[in-house]
Specification:
- This protein is mainly alpha-helical.
- The protein folds into 2 domains: about 90 residues, RNA polymerase sigma factor, region 2, helix turn helix motif (Rna Polymerase Sigma Factor, Chain: A); about 80 residues, Arc Repressor Mutant, subunit A.
- Helices cover about 70% and strands about 0% of the residues.
- Helix 4 packs across helix 5 and helix 10 packs across helix 11.
- The longest helix has 23 residues.
- The protein is elongated, with a radius of gyration of 21 Å.
- The termini are far apart.
Amino acid sequence: MDTYNTSLPTDGTLVQQYISGSEIALEDLINRHKSRIFNFINSKVRDRDTAEDIFQDTFIKVIKTLKNGVYNEEGKFLPWVMRIAHNLIIDFFRKNSRIPILENNDEYDFFQFISDSTPNAENVLASDQIVKDLQKLIQELPDDQKEVLIMRLYRDMSFKEIAENTNVSINTALGRMRYAIINLRKLVAEHKIILEA
């Protein structure tokens, strides 16, 4: 079994074989990474049909790029495909004016932006409901503040990137984020949403 594993072609080899005309190579690539890519998409959109659509669109884009000969991510096929999928997820949320799922995880603590202290172990259990409540409140923010908040929290963009994407200065982007947090705190108080015990 080990000998078989080491003789499996790399992603880069399969990409080259596909570019040279082997459809089977593409099938192998898709099958190799299918579950990881699909699960990533599904974890963001939380809807199987939508996830399947985005998954298909991801590979349509992959195929177009490979066929046009503009693929240059040697040896980094999976991160490249994940980036395409991630961008298509963002496009989906933008088109549908939906707030993405903001999850509280080790890499990024949503609560640090809302309250001055992070939740303790007991109230982490309530985080799913809190996230849903917060998503509704984010919809009530002015568009410019909502845009910065989503870019910062969901797309993990730096304020420099946000400034470039929204054609404003870094100070304006920072200001919009600050006002978004202030307004979100007010909305939390008005709606009596409990963020911590």
